[in-house]
Design goal:
The chain is an alpha/beta fold. It has a single domain, classed as Peptidoglycan recognition protein-like (Lysozyme-like, 3-Layer(aba) Sandwich), CATH 3.40.80. Helix content is 23%, strand content 20%. The strands form 4 sheets. The protein has a 6-stranded mixed sheet. Strands 1-2 form a two-stranded antiparallel ribbon. The longest helix has 17 residues.
Length: 198
């Protein structure tokens, strides 16, 4: 899905765990959540491949274990990683889904939130194409608002109050989405959209 999300009210089919309008590119870097556990946390990440560069197929390839190792020196360091978020929001607002929402995506790694460890068990991972130091795009904040609205409607245990950064659940180990991510702008965009969709 490209930019042009203004006024959109995307839906999640809770029987499949797939977001309408998103491009679905299945990743094998996931598994079942522990029995009886539902997602009640949303984790925002920032990613760019190669580091500091945008565009290209590299993030998709990383999340689907098909990264072209010879395409960039950095890729040799990360080619064996088995990681994926549920969603990726590109610079233009295009949304790609890699993991169904009822499944456990391998996005947060060693992590904890309010004393509860292994955040992958109970969270949704949302990657934004970006870096800690370069401003994120308006289209991404809009896409994020649309996604958060859809998630909160589909899964009652999720709420805007339980939206955190990767750095919040893995402090000292991770810094994303970084100082460049405008939390007040993100929360305002989400609040405006949720008010309109009620």
């Amino acid at each position: 899905m490209a930019a042009g999300l203004e006024g959109k009210d995307l839906q999640i089919d809770t029987s499949t765990g797939i977001l309408s309008g998103a491009e679905f590119t299945p990743s094998s870097n996931c598994d079942a959540r522990p029995s009886g556990i539902e997602a009640d946390l949303m984790v925002i990440h920032g990613i760019s491949l190669p580091p500091g560069e945008f565009g290209g197929p590299w993030i998709d390839q990383l999340f689907t274990n098909t990264l072209a190792v010879d395409a960039h020196p950095h890729f040799k360091e990360i080619a064996t990683l088995r990681v994926s978020s549920h969603l990726l929001l590109r610079r233009n607002g295009r949304i790609t889904q890699f993991v169904k929402f009822h499944e456990r995506a391998w996005h947060a790694g060693r992590s904890s939130y309010k004393g509860r460890v292994d955040c992958n068990d109970f969270s949704i991972g949302i990657e934004l194409e970006g870096t800690d130091t370069q401003p994120y795009e308006s289209a991404q904040y809009l896409a994020l608002a649309v996604v958060i609205n859809a998630l909160c409607k589909a899964y009652p245990r999720l709420s805007v109050e339980r939206l955190v950064g990767h750095s919040d659940v893995a402090p000292g180990r991770k810094t994303d989405p970084g100082p460049a991510f405008d939390w007040p702008k993100a929360r305002l965009s989400i609040a405006k959209l949720r008010a309109k969709s009620r």
